[in-house]
Amino acid sequence: MGNLKITLRDNAWIRWGMLLMVGFVLAANYYFYDALSPLKSKLTEEFGFSSTDFGLFVSVYSIPNVFLLMAVLGGVILDKLGIRRTGFMFVSFMAFGALITAYGASDIYTNGGWGYGFMSSFMPSYSPELKMMLLGRFLFGLGAETSIVVISKIIVKWFKGKELALAFGVKLGLARTGSFLAFNLSPILIESPAGWTTAIWFAAFFVTASLIVFMIYMMLDLKLDRQSQQDGELVKSDPFRLSDLKKLILNPSFMYVTLLCLTFYSAVFPFLSFSADFFLNKFGLSVKESGFISSMLPVGTMFFTPLFGFVVDKYGRAASLMIYGSLILVLVHTCFAFTTINPYVLMVILGIAFSLVPASMWPSVAKIVDEKRIGSAYGFMFSIQNIGLWIFPILAGVVLDKTNAEGVESLNYTFTLIMFAALGILGLLFAILLKREDKISGYGLELPSNSK
Ligand SMILES: NCCCC[C@H](N)C(=O)NCC(=O)O
């Protein structure tokens, strides 16, 4: 018989309150990731960025996670150092990287401020502004992905055996509030009397504020650990071993879910980064309106993801929902490429796909993988996913530059969208394989959350 002592995680108000706090950190993270997307044409106007430069800027976020295996390493560090120290370290990286990016676009820097001379002294085909902003986004990415791993582990810690899928859904909904705000606020902030870079500084300060919120969370976390230690309820992570990684890689269910994660997200996040510019070019809209249409995607997911999380908790069917979500993604990209169907409608439908897959995928990992390895498992998945988040924004930019003559009045996005639709088809295939495999391995992905 277990100890019946009540801990902080048994208090629903505290449990959901702490979710709001970590949700704020995620919202800041997503805000910064997307804040410059509606500014693509502004960056071309001010600093001469080509589509390839913009793609490079988006993708440099993923370089530490692909080449330094930061998300895996972060998962390992997390399993070793724990939530508080790891979280603090990586949210600090995020804040520092965000501030450096804003500095790279600022007047102080462009008028010869600190580092300008150095950044001008090599690779002259890349502007000093681009180089400093790349450095900032690199550091931001180094902290951002690992901090999402930390927050995923926090959710499992507080919600396992309770409303886990719903909590994941709400967490994603809060994160995407950040994207929603970015697509709407950035186009307004570029008109600020203090100058267009206000949009970037605001994003950087938002991330800095999230560091303070994380420090408040750390106090709650400490208290829960003390209570759980007294109860003997604390789940200690085993030290990370390479053989664990091998076990994960040899698990077909885990690999299908990881490959779905790679292909599905590669067809969504890089598309979202270019989407405002796509609407601006294809439909001849203003920066504000095209940013607003892009924000329909996160706004849809803010409601649908918790809803589907609730459905997965209560009725299961996670593997099937991943298949439906992947199918919708393919249909929407095909429509974007070949039709002029109202983009508002298509973005909301894409929001359904972007809710179905994440709301069922992330909690499914907790069924496939032992809780002691969950940090490493999410870290591994994020690192593989980041290969796509690194390559596809660059490819999207290159395809755009190659399929459009220089200086053309409006960019044609057809080939770029065909690329995203093809990624969606691969994702669909992995989702089908995952469902088939679940019947063999019996992880119960089609069952409600509390039945496993
Ligand atoms: N904010 C853009 C990149 C976030 C990537 C992150 N590794 C992730 O997978 N997030 C889950 C989600 O569904 O947003």
Automatic annotation (TrEMBL):
Domain Major facilitator superfamily (MFS) profile positions: 15-439
Bilayer-crossing regions: 12-33, 53-78, 90-110, 130-152, 164-186, 198-220, 254-272, 292-312, 319-339, 345-365, 377-400, 412-434
GO CC terms of this entry: lysosomal membrane
Protein location: Lysosome membrane
Gene3D superfamilies to which the protein is assigned, alphabetical: MFS general substrate transporter like domains
Molecular function GO terms recorded: transmembrane transporter activity
Pfam families for this protein: MFS_1 (PF07690)
Record's bilayer topology term: Multi-pass membrane protein
PROSITE patterns to which the protein is assigned, alphabetical: MFS
Keywords: Lysosome, Membrane, Transmembrane, Transmembrane helix, Transport
Signal sequence annotation: none
Subunit structure: Homodimer. Interacts with lysosomal protein GLMP (via lumenal domain); the interaction starts while both proteins are still in the endoplasmic reticulum and is required for stabilization of MFSD1 in lysosomes but has no direct effect on its targeting to lysosomes or transporter activity.
Job description of the protein: Lysosomal dipeptide uniporter that selectively exports lysine, arginine or histidine-containing dipeptides with a net positive charge from the lysosome lumen into the cytosol. Could play a role in a specific type of protein O-glycosylation indirectly regulating macrophages migration and tissue invasion. Also essential for liver homeostasis.
PANTHER family per UniProt: MAJOR FACILITATOR SUPERFAMILY DOMAIN-CONTAINING PROTEIN 1 (PTHR23512:SF3)
UniProt family annotation: Belongs to the major facilitator superfamily.
Name of this chain's protein: Lysosomal dipeptide transporter MFSD1
